Automatic annotation (TrEMBL):
Domain Histidine kinase as annotated: residue spans: 400-623
Occurrences of domain Response regulatory (ranges): 643-759, 788-899
EC number: 2.7.13.3
Keyword Kinase (UniProt): yes
Catalysed reactions, semicolon-separated: ATP + protein L-histidine = ADP + protein N-phospho-L-histidine
Protein name: histidine kinase
Domain PAC: 109-165
Organism the protein comes from: Rhizobium indigoferae
Parts forming coiled coils: 364-391
SUPFAM superfamilies: ATPase domain of HSP90 chaperone/DNA topoisomerase II/histidine kinase, CheY-like, GAF domain-like, Homodimeric domain of signal transducing histidine kinase, PYP-like sensor domain (PAS domain)
EC top class, as a word: transferase
Length: 905
C-alpha cells in the first residue's frame, strides 16, 4: 500500500480523504505529516476497519474516527474530525469523563449495553451501546490517547425488552387459555372447519329433512368475498366442495350482516335454471331451491363468523320449530368455531411461549453461571483481602518489635565489639565474643526477614538491568551451591530495565537458589532465566492483586522433588518450612514475597511432584536509563577526626555508639532526642555530621531536625539510623531520594564505612556547588535573569533537598507546602516554571496546575508522582512527567524539557 501527499497511506474511505487534505489540522497534533509514527499506525488501522472506531490522542484528545463510525453521530460529521473529545461529546461528557480518565490512567474497560442519552435530530433519545476503551501508548511508552470500538445495540436491546413484555403477557393469557382448552376438549381434541361443517350440515339435514344444507364460514378469499362449505342431501360428503358465494347475492345480506334470520317459504324460479330471475333477485347460477332458511352464527363477542343455510326444492318446508332447532344448532356451532379459533391462536401462542421458555431457561442457566462466577470472584477477592489484612497485621507487629529488638541487638553488638579490643590477648574470650556476635547477626537477619515479609524494610530502588546483575552473581552462586549443581543462566535480548533494590534482588535470587539446592539434595540443574513479560487484563482478573502491564521476569527453575499444591499455597507464609528441624527458619520465601510485593511486582510458583519447581519474580519495567550503582563496601573502614552529633533516645545504644565513634577517632557530641540535638546545633558548635535515630520521642521529628540543621549549618552531612523506619523517611516502601540510612544493628566496620561514605559525598557536593559557581554555558532558554521556579511539595524534607538541587542548577526557587499556598504565591509574583507533586493534601497538583495556567498561560509544568501516568495533568499542553523517586539528573532533564515545551503566549 503506497503513500501519497503528506505521507499518509491510501485507504480509509471518506475520512482518509479528509485527513489527507492539506488544510486539515487536528487540535494539539497539527497536520498528519507531523504526527508520531505510533499515532499514524493506529489511525491507519482504525480508518480501514469496518467496525465503528475512534481514536482520541494528544493533550486535547483530538477526535479521529472512521467511516463506520459516522452513522453514530451523522449530524456532528465532519465538523467533529480533529476537534477535542470533550467538545465533540459535550452533551454526554459528564457521563464519559470518568471512563476517559480511568483509561488514560492505564485501565482497559469494556461496557455492554450501556444506556447513553444521545442528542439526535434536535432531541435527546435513549440509545444503547457496547464498547471497549483501550489506552494507547506513544513511541516512548507514555499513554498518549485512547482507542474505542463501538457497537450500536439499540435495536437488540429494544427487541429484548419487547420479548420480556410479551413473555409476561403470554403468562397471563396462558392461565386463561388453560381454562379454554379444558372447555374445548369436550367438543374435539383438535377440531377443523371441514369436520365441523360436516357435523352441522348432517345434523341440520336430518333435523329439517332438507335436500341441501350449507355452512357459510367467513374466510376472506383475497378479493373481499367468502367461501361456502356445503353438502347435498343424499350425496357423498367425504369431500366438501368450496363454492364461492356470489358478491351480488343480496338475499342473504341480513344474515351475513348479523341482522337476523332470512327465510322464504316459496321462491318462484325462472323455469330456465341458470338464467336470472329478476322478480326473485336470484342471480344466475344460484342453487335451485323453493324454500330456505339462513341463520347467522355469531361469536361470543357478537360478531358474525358465518351462517347456516338449508334449502329444499319444495315450498314451505321449514316450520317455526325447525327454525328454533337451527338457531340452537347455530349457537353450538358458534361455540365450536370459537374453540377452533382459540385453539389455533393458543397453539401459536403455546409454540411462542415454548420458544420464550427455552430462551428464559437458557437465560436462567447463563444467569446461574454468572452468579456462580461472581460468587467465586467475590470469594477470591475476600480471600485476597484477608491475606492482605493478615500481611498488614504481621507487618505492624514485626515493625514495632523490630525497633526495640534491633536497639537491643545494637547495644549487645557494640559492646561485644568494644569488649573484643579489651580481650585481644585471650583466645577463648575472643572465640566466645565471636560466637555471640554471630548470634547477633542471626538475630538481625531474622528481624530483617520479618520486616521484608511485612513489607516494612527500607528499599533503595535503582533502575537496573537484572540480566547484568544476575550474570555478575554467577561465580558467587556456583560457590554457594557447590560443584554438584549445574547452573545455567539465560538472558533474553533487548531486555528492559527494571526499578528495584539491586541488593534485595541479589538476596532474593540467593534465597531461591539455596532453596532449590536443598530440594535437589545438593545435586541437579539450576536454570536462571531473565526476560521481558506482559501480564494482560485477563491475567489480572484471575489474580486481583496484580496490575496489568509490562514486567521483567526473573525465573529460577530446579530439577528437585517439586511441591504439592498444599505446600505451594503456604510456601510464602512466615515460619512455614518443609525442611528438617534446625535446617531453615521458613523466612526465605517470605522475604522474597515481601520484597517483590513491596516493589510493585508479582510472584508465581509452578511445581509438580517429581518434576521440579519454577519460581517467577515479576518486577515492574522502567523506561529510564540504568543507574550507576556505588559499592559502599569499597570505602575503607577507617575513622576520622570530624565532629559528629549523635541523637539517640535509647541510652544503651547512645553510650555504645559514642564509644565506637570515639574509638574511631571522631569528636562526638550527644543528644537524647531531636529537641536536645537542635539546642546543640543552635549553640554554634562546629558539626560535620548529624547521626540521628529516625524514631525518637518528642514533638520534633528527625526529618524536621535534619531540615533545620541544614538551614543553620548548610555544609552538615546527615546519616539516619533505625531498626524500623515507619514512614518518616520511607514512602511506598522506598527510602526517600538523597537520604542515607544505616540500619540497626550494625558492626563497627559498617559504621566506619558509612560515616566515611556520607562525609565523602558531602565533600563532592560542596565541590559541585563550587564548580557551579564558575561560569558555565547557559541553557538556551535561561537568560541573564534567573527563571523563577515554584516548587510545590508537602513533604518538608523532599522539598528541602529538591529546592537545593534546583538552586544549584541556577533557578530562583520559591517553596510552597500546599496548592493553596502556591495559589497565594501566584498572586504575588511572576512564575516561569512549576514543579508540583501530584498527590498534595487539599488541592491536588493537577488542580493547582490548571489554576496556574489560567494566571500564566506560558508557565512550564513538571509533575512529580510515583505513578506511571498523569490522567488529569496530561491534558495540559507541555506538561512533563517526573517519576518518583528521581535523581538530580532526572530532575534537571525534566525541568529543561518543561522550559523548552512551554506554550507560547
Amino acid at each position: 500500500m503506497g503513500s501519497v501527499g503528506n505521507g499518509w497511506p491510501r485507504g480509509g474511505g471518506e475520512i482518509g480523504e479528509l485527513l489527507r487534505h492539506p488544510a486539515f489540522h487536528a487540535v494539539g497534533l497539527g497536520p498528519v505529516e507531523s504526527w508520531p509514527a505510533s499515532l499514524k499506525n493506529i489511525a491507519e488501522m482504525v480508518l480501514n476497519s469496518r467496525q465503528p472506531k475512534f481514536v482520541a490522542w494528544g493533550p486535547d484528545l483530538a477526535f479521529l474516527y472512521n467511516d463506520a463510525y459516522v452513522p453514530v453521530f451523522p449530524q456532528r460529521h465532519p465538523d467533529a474530525l480533529g476537534r477535542p473529545f470533550r467538545e465533540v461529546w459535550a452533551d454526554i461528557w459528564e457521563q464519559f469523563s470518568p471512563i476517559v480518565a480511568s483509561t488514560l490512567d492505564g485501565s482497559s474497560q469494556l461496557f455492554k449495553e450501556l444506556l447513553i442519552p444521545m442528542r439526535r435530530d434536535g432531541r435527546t433519545e435513549d440509545t444503547w451501546f457496547t464498547f471497549s476503551y483501550t489506552p494507547l501508548r506513544d513511541d516512548d511508552g507514555t499513554i498518549a490517547g485512547i482507542l474505542c470500538a463501538a457497537l450500536d445495540v439499540t435495536d437488540q436491546v429494544s427487541a429484548k425488552r419487547g420479548e420480556e413484555t410479551a413473555l409476561e403477557e403470554l403468562r397471563v393469557k396462558s392461565e386463561a387459555l388453560a381454562v379454554v382448552n379444558r372447555a374445548g376438549a369436550a367438543i374435539t381434541a383438535e377440531p377443523s372447519v371441514e369436520r365441523l361443517t360436516q357435523i352441522v350440515v348432517d345434523a341440520g339435514v336430518t333435523l329439517t329433512g332438507a335436500e341441501f344444507g350449507a355452512f357459510f364460514y367467513n374466510v376472506d378469499d383475497g378479493e373481499g368475498g367468502s367461501y361456502m362449505l356445503y353438502a347435498l342431501s343424499g350425496v357423498d360428503r367425504k369431500n366438501f366442495e368450496k363454492f364461492p358465494m356470489p358478491r351480488n347475492t343480496k338475499v342473504f345480506a341480513p344474515t351475513f350482516e348479523g341482522e337476523g334470520i332470512v327465510r322464504s317459504d316459496d321462491i318462484l324460479l325462472d323455469p330456465r335454471y341458470g338464467q336470472n330471475a329478476p322478480h326473485t333477485g336470484m342471480p344466475k347460477g344460484h342453487l335451485p331451491v323453493r324454500s330456505y332458511l339462513a341463520v347467522p352464527v355469531k361469536s361470543r363477542d357478537g360478531s358474525v363468523i358465518g351462517g347456516l343455510f338449508f334449502g329444499h326444492g319444495q315450498p314451505g318446508r321449514f316450520s317455526q320449530a325447525t327454525e328454533s332447532s337451527l338457531v340452537s344448532l347455530a349457537g353450538q356451532s358458534a361455540v365450536a368455531i370459537d374453540n377452533i379459533r382459540l385453539f389455533r391462536a393458543a397453539k401459536v401462542e403455546i409454540d411462542q411461549r415454548r420458544g420464550m421458555e427455552d430462551q428464559l431457561r437458557k437465560l436462567n442457566e447463563m444467569l446461574e453461571v454468572r452468579v456462580a462466577a461472581e460468587i467465586a470472584e467475590r470469594q477470591q477477592a475476600e480471600a485476597a483481602l484477608q491475606q492482605s489484612q493478615k500481611m498488614e497485621s504481621i507487618g505492624k507487629l514485626t515493625g514495632g518489635v523490630a525497633h526495640d529488638f534491633n536497639n537491643l541487638l545494637q547495644v549487645i553488638s557494640g559492646n561485644l565489639q568494644l569488649l573484643g579490643k579489651d580481650v585481644a590477648e585471650s583466645g577463648r574470650a575472643k572465640e566466645r565474643i565471636s560466637n555471640a556476635l554471630a548470634a547477633v547477626e542471626r538475630g538481625s537477619r531474622l528481624a530483617s526477614q520479618l520486616l521484608a515479609f511485612g513489607r516494612r524494610q527500607p528499599l533503595e530502588p535503582k533502575v537496573v538491568n537484572i540480566g547484568r546483575l544476575v550474570t555478575g552473581m554467577d561465580d558467587m552462586l556456583r560457590r554457594a551451591l557447590g560443584e554438584e549443581i549445574e547452573v545455567e543462566t539465560m538472558v533474553s535480548g533487548g531486555l528492559w530495565n527494571s526499578f528495584a533494590d539491586p541488593t534485595q534482588i541479589e538476596n532474593a535470587l540467593l534465597n531461591l537458589a539455596i532453596n532449590s539446592r536443598d530440594a535437589m539434595d545438593g545435586a541437579g540443574k539450576l536454570t536462571i532465566e531473565v526476560g521481558n513479560a506482559f501480564l494482560d487484563d485477563s491475567y489480572s482478573r484471575t489474580h486481583p492483586e496484580v496490575t496489568a502491564g509490562q514486567y521483567v521476569v526473573l525465573a529460577v527453575t530446579d530439577t528437585g522433588s517439586g511441591m504439592m499444591q498444599e505446600v505451594i499455597e503456604q510456601a510464602f507464609e512466615p515460619f512455614f518450612s518443609t525442611k528438617p528441624e534446625g535446617k531453615g527458619t521458613g523466612l526465605g520465601l517470605s522475604m522474597v514475597y515481601g520484597f517483590v510485593k513491596q516493589s510493585g511486582g508479582h510472584v508465581k510458583i509452578y511445581s509438580e511432584i517429581g518434576e521440579g519447581t519454577t519460581v517467577k519474580l515479576y518486577l515492574p519495567r522502567s523506561f529510564q536509563s540504568e543507574d550507576r550503582i556505588t559499592n559502599i563496601d569499597s570505602v575503607p573502614a577507617t575513622g576520622g577526626t570530624e565532629t559528629i552529633l549523635v541523637a539517640e533516645d535509647d541510652e544503651g545504644v547512645r553510650t555504645t555508639v559514642i564509644e565506637m565513634l570515639t574509638d574511631l577517632g571522631y569528636h562526638v557530641l550527644k543528644a537524647k532526642d531531636a529537641q536536645s540535638a537542635l539546642t546543640v546545633i543552635e549553640s554554634g558548635a562546629h558539626i560535620d555530621l548529624l547521626f540521628t535515630d529516625v524514631v525518637m520521642p518528642g514533638p520534633l521529628r528527625s526529618p524536621e531536625l535534619a531540615r533545620m540543621a541544614r538551614e543553620r549549618l548548610p555544609d552538615i552531612a546527615v546519616l539516619y539510623t533505625s531498626g524500623y523506619t515507619e514512614n518518616s523517611i520511607v514512602h511506598g516502601g522506598r527510602l526517600d531520594p538523597g537520604l542515607e540510612l544505616l540500619s540497626k544493628p550494625y558492626t563497627r566496620e559498617e559504621l566506619a564505612r558509612k560515616i566515611r561514605h556520607v562525609l565523602a559525598s558531602r565533600t563532592q557536593r560542596r565541590q559541585g556547588v563550587s564548580d557551579a559557581a564558575a561560569p558555565v554555558p547557559k541553557h538556551p532558554d535561561i537568560t541573564d535573569e534567573k527563571l523563577k521556579l515554584l516548587l510545590v511539595e508537602d513533604d518538608a524534607f523532599i522539598r528541602m533537598d529538591t529546592a537545593e538541587i534546583l538552586q544549584d542548577l541556577g533557578y530562583d526557587v520559591i517553596e510552597a507546602d500546599s496548592g493553596e499556598r502556591g495559589v497565594e504565591i501566584l498572586g504575588q509574583t511572576v512564575i516561569d516554571i512549576i514543579v508540583a507533586d501530584v498527590s498534595l493534601p487539599g488541592m491536588s497538583g493537577p488542580v493547582f496546575a490548571a489554576k496556574a495556567r489560567e494566571a500564566f498561560p506560558s508557565v512550564g509544568l513538571v509533575f512529580a508522582t510515583g505513578h506511571s501516568s498523569l490522567p488529569d495533568a496530561s491534558r495540559l499542553s507541555g506538561s512533563v512527567l517526573l517519576s518518583k523517586p528521581f535523581s538530580s539528573t532526572a530532575l534537571e532533564r525534566a525541568v529543561k524539557t518543561a522550559v523548552q515545551q512551554r506554550p507560547v503566549g
